Amino acid sequence: MQVKGILFDLDGTLWFKGKMTKGANECLEWARGRGLKVRILTNGVRIR
Q1: Are 40 and 11 contacting, i.e. CB atoms less than 8 angstroms apart?
Q2: What gap in Å lies between CA 16 and CA 2, rounded to an integer?
Q3: Rounded Cα–Cα distance for residues 10 and 16 (Å)
Q4: CA–CA distances in Å: residue 37 to residues 6, 14, 48
Q5: How far apart are the first and last CA of the chain?
Q6: Which positions ≥6 away from 7 have C-beta within 8 Å?
Q7: Calpha distance 3→39 (Å, rounded)
Q8: Which residues are CB-contacts of 1 (< 8 A; sequence separation ≥ 6)?
């Protein structure tokens, strides 16, 4: 089986307390640089 893409959780994984987490950008660039499709998901709900 060949991996064609990666799903990332946003809240607490790539993004925490309003800021991108350390290494998140490099991780996304790594995946995209290998031709993988990247999708970012979240189940976080914010009421303003």
Answers
A1: no
A2: 31
A3: 8
A4: 6, 16, 32
A5: 43
A6: 39, 40, 41
A7: 13
A8: none
Residue with the two structure tokens 């893409």: 5
pLDDT at 43 (0 to 100): 83
Per residue in 1-48, pLDDT tens?
A: 999 999 999 988 999 888 999 999 999 999 999 999 999 998 876 666
Residues, the chain, total? 48
Provide the H-helix boundaries in the chain: 24-33
pTM greater than 0.85 (yes/no): no
What six digits make up the tokens of 18? 């309003």
